[in-house]
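pinned: reference chain
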Amino acid sequence: MRRPGSTTLTILSTVVAGFLTFLVFYNQYDKESRLIAQQHEMMLDVAYRSTIDMYRLDIETHLAAQVLEPRVVALLQDLAVTTDPARLAELRGTLYLLLAPAYRQMSAQGLAQLHFHHPDGRSFLRFADPSRSGDDIAGFRASVRIANADLRPVFGFEGGRMGPAFRNVFPIVADGRHLGSVEISLGFDKIHENLVRLLPIDACALIVHRREAIDVAFPERHGTFTTSALHPDYVAETRMAAVRAPAERTPNRPRLDELLRDMPQVRAAIDRGESFAVPLVDDGRGWVVAFHAVRDATGEQAAYVVGYSETPVLGVVRRTAMLEAVGILTLLVVAGAAVVTLQRNRRRLAHERQQLDHITRAMADGLYVMDADGVALFVNSAAERLLRRPAAEIVGRRVHDLIHSHARNGHMPLAECPIFRATRAGTAFDGEEIFLDRDGRPFPVELSARPMLRDGVVTGSVTVFRDIGERLRGE
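pinned: its structure tokens
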């Protein structure tokens, strides 16, 4: 058997060395790009929830001050004791005239819908289309069904006859009698406006699952939707193209959508209903596209808020990795220059991370990031202030043992903590808990915890919280 010559061995060695070099530098680029993408995903999540909370407070103010005024409640009490169609039509007209000025004001502020429902879930008055009433919407609108069955407010994204919206449905109870419910909905245009203002993103879009759009909308509304370029099961409202145009700076967004559509991991993540972010380099330009999963009132995946951010550091890092790999194989004397280039690009990456870190630290709400074992990896300035602890006392320690173990919960161990159990299982946790500051003083907080996933595996969690002591004392 003829033994391979030195030329063959050299070629084989070069091929193996080239392959190994490619793997090393690809893994390096992949790790750094994933970290950048994860930061963008977290920023979009925080900004979205802050925006929803801000508008929810505004809606509750409208409800108390303008919608459920005494004359409206008295009219709804009359409605509850009549079944005469003529009387129902008269009450509907009176209610419309009574609240028309308030509805015009709310519409000017971006609120999409004001809608009253009967206690059994039938539509009583749509201010966006007063001619349509009496249809049963509780069968496909879980928010209306839950609000009237449980007599509690329901918030969340949901489809509807007039189109999908961010719903705020409130039961109406007067003198111990259930009079129905009222809904004040928010369109995505105002959320889009606030996200573009808060985040360093170039474009923002909402894609909605077909069952929340075309499957429930009036037939004549079907033409207002177009199939999303990102996933065939999702649609986008055509009117939002005009809303986005003044604020967007991404003329090549269709190209990005085309690249994302052809990625199997993107389609798989959307099918699973996960929040995620994808780093991209196209024609030398770096991008991060973040997908924030939006749930309906029952917790089922309903839509995605998609943020497009140009991230030059991604293109720089990838180009650097390729140049370094070629340099190692062709000329060892350029190794020093390659290291200098790598250091320069890492400083750029550190600057990008610092910018993202400044945005996180400037939040008014406290935020901390934990690994899968509950050990703190990061806390922002607001968390330090609320907990009255410097970051050095929190990072590297188990957050639960430090701030969430006290006499009021019987020194509950980490494994039994509802927040840790929920995020460890890959689900979200929203609620109110008691935290301890540095002096052992307990204070009530409202918190939202979300798991961080990588390839379907929980790698940690992000928790945002705020002190609600003053609010509870006021209530």
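why pinned: The radius of gyration is 27 Å. The chain is about 45% helix and 25% strand.
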